[in-house]
């Protein structure tokens, strides 16, 4: 089953339209507890803050940090509740992540990188 989700996420990544923020791909990755599916949308280095622990990570390191969070707090659901205006500089979005009845706010800052929007920072905090 994990292979199917990885394949589906990879397909979504390759098909997302140029210049658009990949909201549906990110929602799927968070819902499926797929850290690689999230960091693949990121810049080379991503600022991640998970429950007050912050650092700048490469993709592989960021995936480990998110995997640790998902192991401890597996997803019941994830949905974006606010999507900021897309500008030439970037945008941001806020999502609601729920794990076993516990709610978390996910804030993602996107930076325009050529024609694409890439994750610059990701924060997960108790709601």
Short description, anyone?
It contains four helices and six strands; from the N terminus they run H-H-H-E-E-H-E-E-E-E. The protein has 127 residues and is of the alpha+beta class.
Word description of this protein:
This protein has a single domain (2-126), classed as Roll (Nuclear Transport Factor 2, Chain: A). It has 127 residues and is α+β, with helices and mostly antiparallel strands. Helix content is 33%, strand content 43%. It has helices spanning 2-15, 23-31, 35-39, 59-72, and strands at 42-50, 53-57, 77-83, 90-99, 102-113, 116-126. The radius of gyration is 13 Å and the shape is globular. A hairpin with a 2-residue loop joins strand 4 (90-99) and strand 5. The protein contains 4 helices and 6 strands; from the N terminus they run αααββαββββ. The chain has a 6-stranded mixed β-sheet with strand order 2-1-6-5-4-3, with helices on one face. Helix 1 (2-15) packs antiparallel against helix 2 (23-31).
- Topology order in helix (H) and strand (E) letters: HHHEEHEEEE
Proportion of residues in β-strands: 35-45%
Terminal Cα span: 30 Å
Number of strands: 6
- CATH classification class: Alpha Beta
Would you tell me the structural class of the helices and strands? alpha+beta
> How many domains?
1
By DSSP (H or I, 4+ residues per run), the number of helices equals 4
Q: Which value, in Å, is the CA radius of gyration?
A: 13 Å
**Mean pLDDT across all residues, rounded?**
90
| Bulk shape | globular
* Lateral arrangement of strands in the main beta sheet: 2-1-6-5-4-3
